[in-house]
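Re: the request from the purification team.
They wanted to know what the chain is likely to look like in 3D before they choose a buffer screen. I agreed to run a prediction and write the result into the notebook, where they can find it.
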Amino acid sequence: MLEIFFHGDQRFHRIFLIQPDDVRAVRMWAMNVGAYNFAFAFGLAVGLLMVNTGNAAGGTSIVLFLIVST
C-alpha cells in the first residue's frame, strides 16, 4: 500500500530510492508495483483462509501458485 498511496511523500523517498525531482517519473511503476503486491497479498490471504476453513485443495493450489509466481 505504500507504493500506491505514499510514493510522493518525502518521508518514504529513502525506502523507494527516489530523488525528489523524480517523483512524477516513478508514479507509474509505483502504482503498478503497489497493485501487484496488493493482489498477491490478497490472494495469499484468501488461499490461507481457504486452507484453514476446510477447502484445503483449493487453498493449497492458490498458495502454491502465488509462491511459484513470485
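For the purification team: The two ends are 18 Å apart (CA to CA).
Please add any questions underneath this entry.
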